[in-house]
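so i finally got all the pieces together for this one. its two components total, 452 residues if u count the protein bits. some of the lines might not be protein, just check the labels. i wanna see the whole assembly predicted at once instead of chain by chain like last time, that was a mess tbh
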Amino acid sequence: MARQQATRLEPDTGERDLDLLTRMAAGDQGALDALYTRHGGTAYALARAILGESADAEEVVVDAYAQLWRTAGQFDPSRGSVLAWLTTITRSRALDLLRCRRRRDSALDRMVVLAPPEAAMAAENSAEREEAHALVRRSLGTLPEPQRRAIELAYFRGLSHSEIAAELNEPLGTVKTRIRAGLERLRAQLAPLLSEVQS
Amino acid sequence: MTEHEWRDQAAGYAMGSLEADERQRFEAHLAECGACRADVASFREVVGLLAYGAPPASVPANLRERVTAEARRVRPLPRPRRVTPAVAGLAAAASIAAVVGLGALARARSEQRALAALLAAARAELAARDSTIAALLGPELHVVSLSATGQEPSVRVFWNHPRSLFVVTAFNLPPAPAGRVYQLWAIPKDKAPISMGTFTTGADGRSTVVVPVSSAVLEAGFIDFCGLTVEPEGGSPQPTEAPRLLGTWRHSE
Protein backbone atom coordinates (compact mmCIF):
# COMPACT_ATOMS: atom_id res chain seq x y z
CA MET A 1 0.00 0.00 0.00
CA ALA A 2 2.62 2.47 1.09
CA ARG A 3 4.83 1.57 -1.85
CA GLN A 4 1.92 2.02 -4.23
CA GLN A 5 1.38 5.53 -2.98
CA ALA A 6 5.04 6.32 -3.40
CA THR A 7 4.87 5.12 -7.00
CA ARG A 8 1.74 7.12 -7.66
CA LEU A 9 3.42 10.25 -6.38
CA GLU A 10 6.67 9.83 -8.23
CA PRO A 11 5.88 8.69 -11.72
CA ASP A 12 8.50 10.72 -13.61
CA THR A 13 11.29 8.18 -13.61
CA GLY A 14 10.17 5.56 -11.13
CA GLU A 15 12.98 6.66 -8.84
CA ARG A 16 12.33 7.89 -5.34
CA ASP A 17 13.35 11.40 -4.30
CA LEU A 18 15.86 9.80 -1.99
CA ASP A 19 17.52 7.94 -4.89
CA LEU A 20 17.87 11.23 -6.75
CA LEU A 21 19.45 12.80 -3.69
CA THR A 22 21.95 9.95 -3.41
CA ARG A 23 22.93 10.48 -7.04
CA MET A 24 23.21 14.22 -6.41
CA ALA A 25 25.58 13.61 -3.50
CA ALA A 26 27.79 11.74 -5.99
CA GLY A 27 27.81 14.82 -8.26
CA ASP A 28 25.16 13.68 -10.78
CA GLN A 29 23.73 16.88 -12.29
CA GLY A 30 21.01 14.97 -14.14
CA ALA A 31 19.57 13.94 -10.77
CA LEU A 32 19.36 17.60 -9.74
CA ASP A 33 17.57 18.37 -12.99
CA ALA A 34 15.11 15.54 -12.31
CA LEU A 35 14.49 16.79 -8.76
CA TYR A 36 13.86 20.24 -10.19
CA THR A 37 11.35 18.82 -12.68
CA ARG A 38 9.61 17.11 -9.81
CA HIS A 39 9.48 19.84 -7.17
CA GLY A 40 10.76 23.07 -8.75
CA GLY A 41 7.24 24.29 -9.50
CA THR A 42 6.14 23.62 -5.92
CA ALA A 43 9.16 25.42 -4.48
CA TYR A 44 8.61 28.39 -6.78
CA ALA A 45 4.88 28.63 -6.04
CA LEU A 46 5.71 28.54 -2.32
CA ALA A 47 8.36 31.27 -2.57
CA ARG A 48 5.99 33.29 -4.72
CA ALA A 49 3.12 32.90 -2.23
CA ILE A 50 5.35 34.24 0.54
CA LEU A 51 7.21 36.96 -1.36
CA GLY A 52 4.86 37.89 -4.15
CA GLU A 53 7.59 39.42 -6.24
CA SER A 54 8.97 36.96 -8.77
CA ALA A 55 12.63 38.11 -8.87
CA ASP A 56 13.05 37.40 -5.14
CA ALA A 57 11.09 34.18 -5.41
CA GLU A 58 13.42 32.93 -8.16
CA GLU A 59 16.43 33.81 -6.05
CA VAL A 60 15.05 31.78 -3.16
CA VAL A 61 14.50 28.71 -5.36
CA VAL A 62 18.00 28.91 -6.85
CA ASP A 63 19.39 29.24 -3.31
CA ALA A 64 17.33 26.37 -1.93
CA TYR A 65 18.34 23.99 -4.72
CA ALA A 66 21.97 25.08 -4.35
CA GLN A 67 21.83 24.10 -0.69
CA LEU A 68 20.23 20.76 -1.55
CA TRP A 69 22.95 20.14 -4.11
CA ARG A 70 25.83 21.04 -1.79
CA THR A 71 24.53 19.16 1.23
CA ALA A 72 22.77 16.22 -0.47
CA GLY A 73 25.26 13.81 1.16
CA GLN A 74 24.29 14.99 4.61
CA PHE A 75 20.56 14.40 4.19
CA ASP A 76 19.20 12.15 6.92
CA PRO A 77 16.07 10.30 5.68
CA SER A 78 15.11 9.39 9.26
CA ARG A 79 14.36 13.07 9.87
CA GLY A 80 11.76 13.38 7.12
CA SER A 81 11.11 13.38 3.40
CA VAL A 82 13.10 15.17 0.71
CA LEU A 83 10.06 17.27 -0.17
CA ALA A 84 9.71 18.40 3.46
CA TRP A 85 13.42 19.30 3.47
CA LEU A 86 13.16 21.28 0.25
CA THR A 87 10.04 23.16 1.30
CA THR A 88 11.49 23.85 4.76
CA ILE A 89 14.59 25.42 3.22
CA THR A 90 12.57 27.32 0.63
CA ARG A 91 10.10 28.60 3.18
CA SER A 92 12.70 29.65 5.74
CA ARG A 93 14.71 31.58 3.11
CA ALA A 94 11.59 33.24 1.76
CA LEU A 95 10.43 34.16 5.27
CA ASP A 96 13.91 35.57 6.07
CA LEU A 97 13.61 37.82 3.03
CA LEU A 98 10.06 38.73 3.97
CA ARG A 99 11.06 39.73 7.53
CA CYS A 100 13.92 41.76 6.16
CA ARG A 101 11.55 43.50 3.78
CA ARG A 102 8.98 44.01 6.51
CA ARG A 103 11.57 45.86 8.56
CA ARG A 104 12.38 48.05 5.58
CA ASP A 105 8.82 48.69 4.68
CA SER A 106 6.20 47.88 7.29
CA ALA A 107 3.49 49.04 4.90
CA LEU A 108 3.93 45.85 2.95
CA ASP A 109 1.42 43.82 4.85
CA ARG A 110 -0.27 41.44 2.51
CA MET A 111 -2.33 38.41 3.24
CA VAL A 112 -1.78 35.31 1.17
CA VAL A 113 -5.00 33.80 -0.04
CA LEU A 114 -4.92 30.13 -0.87
CA ALA A 115 -6.24 29.24 -4.28
CA PRO A 116 -9.52 27.37 -4.65
CA PRO A 117 -9.24 23.69 -5.60
CA GLU A 118 -10.30 24.23 -9.20
CA ALA A 119 -7.53 26.74 -9.98
CA ALA A 120 -5.37 25.83 -12.95
CA MET A 121 -2.04 24.20 -12.20
CA ALA A 122 1.35 25.24 -13.44
CA ALA A 123 2.07 23.50 -16.73
CA GLU A 124 5.12 21.62 -15.40
CA ASN A 125 3.17 19.50 -12.97
CA SER A 126 2.43 15.95 -13.91
CA ALA A 127 -1.15 14.76 -13.59
CA GLU A 128 -0.24 12.77 -10.48
CA ARG A 129 1.27 15.75 -8.77
CA GLU A 130 -1.71 17.86 -9.76
CA GLU A 131 -3.81 15.34 -7.91
CA ALA A 132 -1.59 15.74 -4.83
CA HIS A 133 -1.84 19.52 -5.05
CA ALA A 134 -5.59 19.31 -5.43
CA LEU A 135 -5.89 17.05 -2.40
CA VAL A 136 -3.91 19.51 -0.25
CA ARG A 137 -6.05 22.40 -1.46
CA ARG A 138 -9.28 20.49 -0.91
CA SER A 139 -8.15 19.51 2.57
CA LEU A 140 -7.25 23.10 3.42
CA GLY A 141 -10.64 24.13 2.11
CA THR A 142 -12.44 21.78 4.49
CA LEU A 143 -10.74 23.22 7.59
CA PRO A 144 -12.89 25.49 9.73
CA GLU A 145 -12.10 29.06 8.74
CA PRO A 146 -10.34 30.06 12.02
CA GLN A 147 -8.01 27.03 11.79
CA ARG A 148 -7.20 27.70 8.15
CA ARG A 149 -6.47 31.37 8.82
CA ALA A 150 -4.16 30.62 11.75
CA ILE A 151 -2.27 28.06 9.65
CA GLU A 152 -1.97 30.45 6.70
CA LEU A 153 -0.62 33.24 8.90
CA ALA A 154 1.95 30.90 10.44
CA TYR A 155 2.96 29.17 7.22
CA PHE A 156 2.92 31.88 4.56
CA ARG A 157 3.67 34.91 6.71
CA GLY A 158 5.91 33.27 9.28
CA LEU A 159 4.04 34.81 12.22
CA SER A 160 4.56 33.41 15.71
CA HIS A 161 1.66 32.29 17.90
CA SER A 162 1.57 35.59 19.77
CA GLU A 163 1.71 37.58 16.53
CA ILE A 164 -1.18 35.52 15.14
CA ALA A 165 -3.12 36.06 18.38
CA ALA A 166 -2.60 39.83 18.00
CA GLU A 167 -3.52 39.77 14.32
CA LEU A 168 -6.71 37.78 14.84
CA ASN A 169 -7.46 39.34 18.21
CA GLU A 170 -7.78 35.96 19.86
CA PRO A 171 -6.33 34.42 23.04
CA LEU A 172 -2.91 32.84 22.64
CA GLY A 173 -4.09 29.43 23.83
CA THR A 174 -6.86 29.40 21.24
CA VAL A 175 -4.39 30.09 18.45
CA LYS A 176 -2.08 27.27 19.57
CA THR A 177 -4.94 24.81 19.76
CA ARG A 178 -6.26 25.86 16.34
CA ILE A 179 -2.93 25.27 14.68
CA ARG A 180 -2.58 21.89 16.32
CA ALA A 181 -6.16 20.86 15.54
CA GLY A 182 -5.79 22.07 11.94
CA LEU A 183 -2.56 20.16 11.39
CA GLU A 184 -4.05 17.01 12.93
CA ARG A 185 -7.03 17.23 10.61
CA LEU A 186 -4.77 17.75 7.62
CA ARG A 187 -2.60 14.84 8.73
CA ALA A 188 -5.64 12.57 8.62
CA GLN A 189 -6.84 13.86 5.25
CA LEU A 190 -3.42 13.81 3.63
CA ALA A 191 -2.64 10.28 4.83
CA PRO A 192 -2.44 8.94 1.24
CA LEU A 193 0.39 11.38 0.52
CA LEU A 194 2.09 10.86 3.86
CA SER A 195 2.21 7.07 3.79
CA GLU A 196 5.14 7.34 1.41
CA VAL A 197 7.17 9.01 4.12
CA GLN A 198 6.32 6.59 6.86
CA SER A 199 7.07 3.51 4.75
CA MET B 1 2.98 21.31 31.55
CA THR B 2 0.25 18.78 30.76
CA GLU B 3 0.53 16.35 27.90
CA HIS B 4 -2.16 18.22 25.98
CA GLU B 5 -0.15 21.44 26.04
CA TRP B 6 2.97 19.67 24.82
CA ARG B 7 0.91 18.42 21.88
CA ASP B 8 0.07 22.02 20.94
CA GLN B 9 3.77 22.83 21.19
CA ALA B 10 4.70 19.97 18.84
CA ALA B 11 2.46 21.41 16.12
CA GLY B 12 3.81 24.94 16.62
CA TYR B 13 7.36 23.65 16.67
CA ALA B 14 6.92 21.85 13.33
CA MET B 15 5.31 24.99 11.95
CA GLY B 16 8.11 27.19 13.28
CA SER B 17 5.62 29.46 15.04
CA LEU B 18 6.79 29.05 18.67
CA GLU B 19 8.33 32.03 20.43
CA ALA B 20 12.10 31.71 20.97
CA ASP B 21 11.87 30.90 24.69
CA GLU B 22 9.06 28.38 24.13
CA ARG B 23 11.09 26.73 21.41
CA GLN B 24 14.07 26.30 23.72
CA ARG B 25 11.91 24.80 26.48
CA PHE B 26 10.25 22.45 24.01
CA GLU B 27 13.59 21.37 22.57
CA ALA B 28 14.72 20.42 26.07
CA HIS B 29 11.53 18.37 26.43
CA LEU B 30 12.01 16.81 22.96
CA ALA B 31 15.39 15.50 23.98
CA GLU B 32 13.72 13.16 26.44
CA CYS B 33 10.29 12.50 24.90
CA GLY B 34 10.04 10.03 22.04
CA ALA B 35 6.28 10.55 21.64
CA CYS B 36 6.75 14.27 21.04
CA ARG B 37 9.63 13.61 18.62
CA ALA B 38 7.36 11.32 16.60
CA ASP B 39 4.61 13.94 16.75
CA VAL B 40 7.00 16.64 15.47
CA ALA B 41 8.22 14.37 12.67
CA SER B 42 4.71 13.65 11.40
CA PHE B 43 3.59 17.29 11.73
CA ARG B 44 6.71 18.31 9.77
CA GLU B 45 5.58 16.18 6.84
CA VAL B 46 2.15 17.80 6.95
CA VAL B 47 3.76 21.23 7.05
CA GLY B 48 5.96 20.19 4.10
CA LEU B 49 2.85 19.35 2.07
CA LEU B 50 1.32 22.78 2.81
CA ALA B 51 3.59 24.04 0.03
CA TYR B 52 1.12 22.36 -2.34
CA GLY B 53 -1.49 24.79 -1.02
CA ALA B 54 0.31 27.82 -2.47
CA PRO B 55 -1.53 29.48 -5.36
CA PRO B 56 -0.27 28.08 -8.67
CA ALA B 57 2.38 30.23 -10.31
CA SER B 58 3.81 29.84 -13.78
CA VAL B 59 7.48 29.10 -13.37
CA PRO B 60 9.88 31.42 -15.26
CA ALA B 61 11.42 29.52 -18.16
CA ASN B 62 15.03 30.32 -17.22
CA LEU B 63 14.74 29.13 -13.63
CA ARG B 64 15.77 25.55 -14.48
CA GLU B 65 18.89 26.87 -16.19
CA ARG B 66 19.77 29.00 -13.16
CA VAL B 67 19.30 26.07 -10.76
CA THR B 68 21.44 23.68 -12.82
CA ALA B 69 24.08 26.34 -13.56
CA GLU B 70 24.75 26.51 -9.83
CA ALA B 71 25.43 22.75 -9.84
CA ARG B 72 27.98 23.13 -12.63
CA ARG B 73 29.72 25.80 -10.56
CA VAL B 74 30.10 23.97 -7.24
CA ARG B 75 30.54 20.36 -6.20
CA PRO B 76 28.48 18.71 -3.46
CA LEU B 77 30.16 18.78 -0.05
CA PRO B 78 31.88 15.53 0.89
CA ARG B 79 30.28 13.54 3.68
CA PRO B 80 31.67 14.59 7.08
CA ARG B 81 35.19 13.19 7.57
CA ARG B 82 36.46 11.57 10.72
CA VAL B 83 40.13 12.58 10.50
CA THR B 84 40.87 16.13 11.62
CA PRO B 85 43.08 18.24 9.32
CA ALA B 86 45.89 18.46 11.90
CA VAL B 87 46.08 14.68 12.28
CA ALA B 88 45.89 14.21 8.51
CA GLY B 89 48.79 16.65 8.13
CA LEU B 90 50.95 14.70 10.56
CA ALA B 91 50.07 11.44 8.85
CA ALA B 92 51.14 12.93 5.52
CA ALA B 93 54.39 14.11 7.11
CA ALA B 94 55.02 10.61 8.45
CA SER B 95 54.52 8.98 5.05
CA ILE B 96 56.83 11.52 3.42
CA ALA B 97 59.42 10.68 6.10
CA ALA B 98 59.17 7.00 5.16
CA VAL B 99 59.77 7.79 1.48
CA VAL B 100 62.70 10.06 2.31
CA GLY B 101 64.33 7.29 4.36
CA LEU B 102 64.49 5.12 1.24
CA GLY B 103 65.39 7.92 -1.20
CA ALA B 104 68.76 9.15 -2.44
CA LEU B 105 70.87 11.14 0.01
CA ALA B 106 71.29 14.06 -2.38
CA ARG B 107 67.59 14.60 -2.63
CA ALA B 108 67.09 14.03 1.05
CA ARG B 109 68.36 17.48 2.06
CA SER B 110 65.68 19.44 0.16
CA GLU B 111 63.06 16.89 1.13
CA GLN B 112 64.14 17.38 4.71
CA ARG B 113 63.64 21.11 4.46
CA ALA B 114 60.18 20.58 2.98
CA LEU B 115 59.45 18.13 5.74
CA ALA B 116 60.63 20.53 8.40
CA ALA B 117 58.34 23.20 6.93
CA LEU B 118 55.46 20.76 6.92
CA LEU B 119 56.09 19.78 10.52
CA ALA B 120 56.39 23.43 11.53
CA ALA B 121 53.06 24.13 9.86
CA ALA B 122 51.50 21.16 11.63
CA ARG B 123 52.96 22.32 14.96
CA ALA B 124 51.69 25.86 14.37
CA GLU B 125 48.25 24.47 13.64
CA LEU B 126 48.37 22.36 16.79
CA ALA B 127 49.50 25.38 18.82
CA ALA B 128 46.62 27.40 17.39
CA ARG B 129 44.25 24.60 18.37
CA ASP B 130 45.76 24.52 21.85
CA SER B 131 45.12 28.20 22.30
CA THR B 132 41.61 27.74 20.96
CA ILE B 133 41.03 24.98 23.49
CA ALA B 134 42.57 27.12 26.24
CA ALA B 135 40.19 29.94 25.31
CA LEU B 136 37.27 27.52 25.47
CA LEU B 137 38.27 26.09 28.84
CA GLY B 138 38.49 29.39 30.68
CA PRO B 139 36.01 30.36 33.38
CA GLU B 140 33.31 32.97 32.88
CA LEU B 141 32.37 31.73 29.47
CA HIS B 142 29.31 32.79 27.47
CA VAL B 143 28.15 30.54 24.71
CA VAL B 144 25.65 31.08 21.93
CA SER B 145 24.39 28.54 19.39
CA LEU B 146 23.06 29.89 16.12
CA SER B 147 20.57 27.65 14.43
CA ALA B 148 17.93 27.48 11.78
CA THR B 149 15.16 25.08 10.91
CA GLY B 150 15.65 21.90 8.90
CA GLN B 151 19.03 20.34 8.25
CA GLU B 152 20.98 23.52 8.47
CA PRO B 153 24.43 24.72 9.39
CA SER B 154 25.28 25.17 13.04
CA VAL B 155 27.51 27.90 14.38
CA ARG B 156 28.64 28.21 18.00
CA VAL B 157 30.18 31.31 19.45
CA PHE B 158 32.05 31.13 22.76
CA TRP B 159 32.81 34.35 24.57
CA ASN B 160 35.75 34.10 26.92
CA HIS B 161 35.39 37.19 29.11
CA PRO B 162 38.72 37.27 31.00
CA ARG B 163 40.70 36.94 27.76
CA SER B 164 38.26 39.01 25.70
CA LEU B 165 38.04 36.49 22.88
CA PHE B 166 35.31 35.07 20.71
CA VAL B 167 35.84 31.50 19.55
CA VAL B 168 33.61 30.67 16.59
CA THR B 169 33.02 27.10 15.40
CA ALA B 170 31.00 26.34 12.28
CA PHE B 171 29.74 23.02 10.88
CA ASN B 172 27.79 22.33 7.68
CA LEU B 173 28.25 25.92 6.62
CA PRO B 174 28.99 26.01 2.88
CA PRO B 175 31.81 28.39 1.89
CA ALA B 176 30.50 31.93 1.28
CA PRO B 177 30.20 32.82 -2.44
CA ALA B 178 33.31 34.25 -4.13
CA GLY B 179 34.09 37.76 -2.94
CA ARG B 180 31.86 37.39 0.12
CA VAL B 181 32.42 36.43 3.74
CA TYR B 182 30.38 35.46 6.77
CA GLN B 183 30.02 38.23 9.31
CA LEU B 184 28.89 37.84 12.92
CA TRP B 185 26.88 40.48 14.71
CA ALA B 186 26.28 41.21 18.37
CA ILE B 187 22.72 42.52 18.52
CA PRO B 188 21.91 44.51 21.69
CA LYS B 189 18.28 45.23 22.53
CA ASP B 190 16.98 48.31 20.68
CA LYS B 191 20.41 49.19 19.31
CA ALA B 192 22.14 48.73 15.98
CA PRO B 193 24.06 45.46 15.48
CA ILE B 194 27.81 45.57 16.17
CA SER B 195 30.24 43.61 14.01
CA MET B 196 32.05 40.82 15.85
CA GLY B 197 34.25 39.90 12.91
CA THR B 198 34.24 38.00 9.63
CA PHE B 199 35.25 34.47 8.67
CA THR B 200 35.00 31.90 5.91
CA THR B 201 34.63 28.14 5.87
CA GLY B 202 36.50 25.47 3.94
CA ALA B 203 35.06 23.15 1.32
CA ASP B 204 34.11 20.78 4.17
CA GLY B 205 31.81 23.47 5.58
CA ARG B 206 33.83 23.78 8.79
CA SER B 207 35.69 26.56 10.47
CA THR B 208 37.19 27.45 13.84
CA VAL B 209 38.35 31.02 14.35
CA VAL B 210 39.40 33.08 17.35
CA VAL B 211 38.70 36.83 17.22
CA PRO B 212 39.33 39.49 19.84
CA VAL B 213 36.24 41.13 21.36
CA SER B 214 36.08 44.73 20.14
CA SER B 215 35.61 47.62 22.55
CA ALA B 216 32.34 48.47 20.76
CA VAL B 217 30.94 45.10 21.83
CA LEU B 218 32.28 45.52 25.38
CA GLU B 219 30.72 48.97 25.68
CA ALA B 220 27.35 47.90 24.27
CA GLY B 221 26.21 46.49 27.60
CA PHE B 222 23.85 43.51 27.50
CA ILE B 223 23.86 41.68 24.17
CA ASP B 224 20.62 39.85 23.40
CA PHE B 225 21.31 38.08 20.15
CA CYS B 226 24.08 37.00 17.88
CA GLY B 227 23.41 36.88 14.13
CA LEU B 228 25.20 35.68 11.03
CA THR B 229 24.97 37.33 7.60
CA VAL B 230 26.80 37.08 4.28
CA GLU B 231 28.59 40.32 3.40
CA PRO B 232 31.03 41.63 0.81
CA GLU B 233 34.67 40.80 1.48
CA GLY B 234 36.09 42.87 4.35
CA GLY B 235 32.71 42.96 6.07
CA SER B 236 30.02 45.65 6.26
CA PRO B 237 29.56 48.41 8.85
CA GLN B 238 25.95 47.24 9.24
CA PRO B 239 24.30 44.00 8.07
CA THR B 240 22.97 44.20 4.52
CA GLU B 241 20.57 41.29 4.92
CA ALA B 242 18.44 39.60 7.58
CA PRO B 243 20.43 37.15 9.70
CA ARG B 244 20.67 33.69 8.15
CA LEU B 245 21.37 32.28 11.59
CA LEU B 246 20.42 33.74 14.93
CA GLY B 247 21.09 32.74 18.54
CA THR B 248 20.64 34.02 22.08
CA TRP B 249 23.47 34.22 24.59
CA ARG B 250 23.44 32.01 27.63
CA HIS B 251 25.83 31.50 30.52
CA SER B 252 27.88 28.34 30.73
CA GLU B 253 28.11 26.46 34.00
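Confidence is low (pLDDT under 50) at residues 81-103 of chain B.
The longest strand of chain B covers residues 223-232.
anyway lmk what u think
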